[in-house]
Automatic annotation (TrEMBL):
SUPFAM superfamilies: FAD-binding/transporter-associated domain-like. Belongs to the oxygen-dependent FAD-linked oxidoreductase family. One of its GO terms (molecular function) is oxidoreductase activity. The keyword Ribonucleoprotein does not apply. This is FAD-binding PCMH-type domain-containing protein. The keyword DNA repair does not apply. InterPro entries: BBE, FAD-bd_PCMH, FAD-bd_PCMH-like_sf, FAD-bd_PCMH_sub1, FAD-bd_PCMH_sub2, Oxid_FAD_bind_N. Its cofactor is FAD. Keywords: FAD, Flavoprotein, Glycoprotein, Signal. PANTHER family: OS08G0158400 PROTEIN. It comes from Aristolochia fimbriata. Residues 89-252 form the FAD-binding PCMH-type domain. It holds the Pfam family FAD_binding_4. Residues 1-30 form the signal peptide.
Length: 456
């Protein structure tokens, strides 16, 4: 099975804190005892500065479009350059705020509401559609890059308070003393199709939990243009043990000891992220370096597969990949610990019965025709319709895709949002909307794909 699990601490995110701050403060704003009006704070900045201690250095906290550091800070955590380009239909924030504590967050939210500004919160995680740093109406960006403390660590209970701007590299969890990785590539001429068929059958259902093997499919040129399948693996154990398992469960790949490498968990993280470090740089320091500028624009989509794709389907996939040299498919096996949790146990519902998920990726360089690549991506996704999950056709929230549907303003109904929401959450979408209706019935925290409030 392909989804190994390592014990982790419980992460208590910023969201409950924001809701509590927002709920209590909005209540006081609506109270008859509250005499503060927009006349006292004619602009957002007047309002914001008026709620902070006089000694606060706003130049290191608030960045308007006229600030010399505005563009640098806005682009620092932006993962998709296309969304900030002139050809995009999105709007950049009026202000970027980089709070360090709860009172600064509270002031940002209160003043944004008072002055009719949307708020987008950016903590640095996956954001393929840029909903944390661009919008389609005036907004301010609450960038949590400086809100990253980890405290109240209880080793016995394995819990901690983690501020939402912290990265995984700053949060320590138990890991194995060493792991084994390998990357083996085969072209169609070298039997990639046969190997992929075997992988479809064993990756989620037969391999042990400690071993995961993903596959990356893409066009390459090796004398002639062809498709290559790259088998990319992580094993919680040693090379000899891995070879024994592979010879038993996936001998067709022909894995050899020289294909494998034992390393620390930190090294494996860098291995899969493709991070190269200069000689003498501590690995931990490289992982904590958040200045990894995005160079390629991209469009992604996702799917879940419940039964092996047929030979006809695979031949069609090869043809589609041969059309676009900058496209690829990343197939991640499920099973293992993913199957051990019920469909309704967490918001993520795509569990037992799914063999693997697919991430479709296409990238392009600055100045290229974005529509050309996006159109190809959409055509590939359409081609895959008969071979993936149905009713609804599932999608992975972490690979967000606005093609699935978008909210139309703050009054988007639950029914309208279900067009995209059921694809991500299935039956859990209604439960999430009911929670939203209890904690944010005015739909203040919203985006093009935010869960709408549903009142019981």
């Amino acid at each position: 099975m392909a989804s190994p699990a390592i014990p982790t601490v419980t992460i208590l995110s910023l969201l409950p804190l924001l809701i509590l701050l927002l709920s209590s403060s909005f209540s006081s704003m609506a109270s008859p005892a509250s005499t503060t009006t927009t006349k006292e704070y004619p602009t957002f900045l007047h309002c914001f500065s008026g709620k902070l201690p006089p000694s606060t250095d706003l130049s290191q906290l608030v960045f308007s479009r006229n600030s010399s550091s505005y563009t640098t800070i806005l682009h620092f955590s932006a993962q998709n350059p296309y969304l900030l380009s002139p050809s995009s239909l999105t709007t950049k924030p009026l202000y970027v705020i980089t709070p360090r504590n709860e009172p600064q967050i509270q002031a940002s939210l209160l003043c944004a509401k008072r002055h009719g500004l949307q708020v987008r919160v950016r903590s640095g995680g996956h954001d393929y559609e840029g909903l944390s740093y661009v919008a389609r109406e005036p907004f301010l960006l609450l960038d949590l890059i400086n809100y990253r403390a980890i405290y109240r660590v209880n080793v016995d209970e394995r819990t901690a308070w983690v501020q939402a701007g912290a990265t995984i590299g700053e949060l320590l969890v138990p890991v194995p003393p060493s792991v084994t990785v390998f990357t083996v590539s085969r072209t169609l001429e070298e039997g990639a199709e046969k190997l992929f068929n075997v992988w479809q059958k064993v990756s989620a259902l037969q391999l042990p939990e400690e071993l995961t093997i993903r596959v990356i499919l893409q066009a390459v040129v090796t004398g002639r243009r062809t498709v290559q399948a790259t088998f990319n693996s992580l094993y919680y154990g040693t090379v000899p043990d891995l070879l024994r398992i592979m010879n038993r469960d996936f001998p067709e790949l022909g894995l050899k000891a020289e294909d494998c490498e034992e390393m620390s968990w930190v090294e494996s993280t860098m291995y899969f992220a493709g991070i190269n470090i200069t000689s003498g740089t501590p690995k931990e320091e490289a992982l904590l370096n958040r200045s990894q500028p995005a160079t390629n624009s991209f469009k992604n989509k996702s799917d879940f597969v419940k039964k092996p794709i047929s030979e006809k389907g695979l031949r069609g996939i090869w043809n589609k990949l041969l059309e676009e040299e900058r496209g690829m498919m990343i197939l991640e096996p499920l099973g293992g610990k993913v199957d051990a949790v019920s469909e309704s146990g967490t918001p993520f519902p795509h569990r037992k019965g799914n063999l693997y998920n697919i991430q479709y990726v296409v990238t392009w360089l600055e100045g290229a025709d974005a529509n050309k690549y996006i159109d190809w991506m959409r055509s590939l996704h359409k081609f895959m319709t008969p071979y993936v999950s149905q009713s609804p056709r599932g999608a992975y929230l972490n690979y967000r895709d606005l093609d699935l549907g978008m909210n139309e303003g703050p009054d988007t109904s639950y029914q309208a949002a279900s067009v995209w929401g059921l694809k991500y959450f299935k039956g859990n979408f209604r439960r999430l909307a009911l929670v939203k209706g209890r904690v944010d019935k005015e739909n203040f925290f919203r985006s093009e794909q935010s869960i709408p409030p549903l009142l019981a």
